[in-house]
Write a structure and sequence with these properties.
The protein is about 50% helix and about 15% strand. It contains eight helices and five strands; from the N terminus they run βαβαααβαβααβα. It has a five-stranded parallel beta sheet with strand order 2-3-1-4-5. α1 packs across α8 (about 155-170), α3 packs across α4 (about 55-70) and α4 (about 55-70) packs parallel to α5 (about 85-95). The protein is globular, with a radius of gyration of 16 Å. The structure holds shikimate-3-phosphate. Shikimate-3-phosphate binds near residues 80, 81, 120 and 121.
């Protein structure tokens, strides 16, 4: 089967959700954010799940949601930063999706996550050292992507343009006459 989902992976604060929403508009596809789906399913925010039940419970809810949404077709799926650490999740996402990883320099990530909270893993320690350490641990998982865009010096429009060019090479046609 041809892969039909566009899947955004990458660290917290790299812009997966905002870029994903715009891609969904351009490609006229349904947008799914795995964190929002987890929140809908559990009736708790991501922060509440971490605070009340811990990370292991969050990862288990995440696994349920990721494997479920990965089986859908023609969607743009934005994943939480740690979703790809579970090999079952990455396998499911790859089965029917092109994986695009967004990255950014640690300084830029720090600025972006400081502007918008709700990141339990960076709540206590948002230092560059902590971000660098987590990025390093996750490097092999993010390297599973089919295409990576470093957004450090790019506007959202430029990031989207790079993704669009890549997807066109992969035969993804844009349903929107404006692009
Ligand atoms: C996490 C990233 C978050 C959210 C949770 C854990 C992570 O999503 O899933 O707080 O492990 O990197 P964003 O990447 O959308 O911030």
């Amino acid at each position: 089967m041809e892969k039909s989902n566009i899947v955004l992976i990458g660290f917290m604060g790299v812009g997966k959700t905002s870029i994903g929403k715009k891609l969904a508009d351009i490609y006229q596809r349904e947008f799914i954010d795995t964190d929002r789906e987890i929140e809908k399913l559990t009736g708790m925010t991501v922060s509440q799940i971490f605070a009340r039940h811990g990370e292991i419970r969050f990862r288990s809810e995440e696994n349920l949601i990721v494997t479920k949404v990965a089986a859908r077709s023609n969607c743009v799926i934005s994943t939480g930063g740690g979703a790809v650490i579970d090999p079952e999740n990455i396998k499911a996402l790859q089965a029917n999706g092109i994986l695009i990883c967004l990255t950014a320099d640690p300084q830029v990530i720090q600025e972006r996550v400081s502007k918008r909270g709700g990141r339990p893993l960076l709540q206590k320690d948002r230092s560059i050292e902590r971000i660098v350490q987590l990025l390093k641990e996750r490097e092999p998982f993010y390297a599973e992507a089919d295409f990576t865009v470093d957004t450090t010096h790019l506007s959202q429009e430029e990031t989207i343009e790079r993704i669009r060019v890549f997807l066109e090479e992969r035969g993804f046609s844009c349903g929107n006459p404006a692009c």
